[in-house]
Amino acid sequence: MAVASDPARGALIGVVLFAPDHDLGDLLAKEGSLSARWHSEHIDVFRAAVASDPVHGPLIGVQTYFSDVLVKEGSLSASWNTEHASTTQVAVAG
After folding, report:
1. Are strands 57-64 and 10-18 parallel, antiparallel or unpaired?
2. Which of 9, 33, 51, 70 is the right S-S partner for 59, CB 3.0 to 4.6 Å?
3. Is the dihedral of CA 19, 24, 25, 31 positive or negative?
4. Contact partners, residue 22, CB within 8 Å, separation at least 6
5. Which residues lie below 8 Å from residue 20, measured CB to CB, with a gap of 6+?
6. Is 56 left (phi over 0), alpha (psi -120 to 50) or beta?
7. Which are the contacts of 73, defined by CB distance < 8 A and separation ≥ 6?
8. Residue 21: which pLDDT band, with cuts at 50, 70 and 90?
9. Is 22 helix (H, G, I), strand (E, B) or coil?
């Protein structure tokens, strides 16, 4: 689980749901109120990180099964951008 917040958009919550005996999961995220709906963000996720700020909005990073780091910024529906390959960690800051 990863959590961030900013005064303009409220909470940003990301969770990776793993099936039993699997190393990868599905990333779900929600923004705003705790009763907001979950958005399916990415599948085959190993790690995830989230951040947010009032100017640029949500920032989400994932490390995939292939150790690629993908990020998106601005909204939960933004496109993914590949930032780096063959990584061991992912972190983001707003």
Report:
1. unpaired
2. 51
3. positive
4. none
5. none
6. alpha
7. 56, 57, 58, 59, 60
8. confident
9. coil
> With pLDDT > 90 as the criterion, what percentage of the chain qualifies?
89
> How would you classify the pairing of strands 25-32 and 39-53?
antiparallel
Cβ proximity of 49 and 29 under 8 Å: no
- Average pLDDT of every residue of the chain: 94
| 10: β partners | 6
> Residue type at 18?
F
Q: Please, where are the H alpha helices in 45-87?
A: none
- Reading phi first (left if > 0) and then psi (alpha if -120 to 50, else beta), residue 22 is in beta
Instruction: Name the residue among 24, 14, 9, 20 with its Cα closest to residue 72.
Output: 14
Long-range contacts for 41-45 (Cβ within 8 Å, ≥24 apart)? 41/14, 41/72, 41/76, 42/70, 42/80, 45/16
**What pLDDT score was predicted for residue 20?**
83
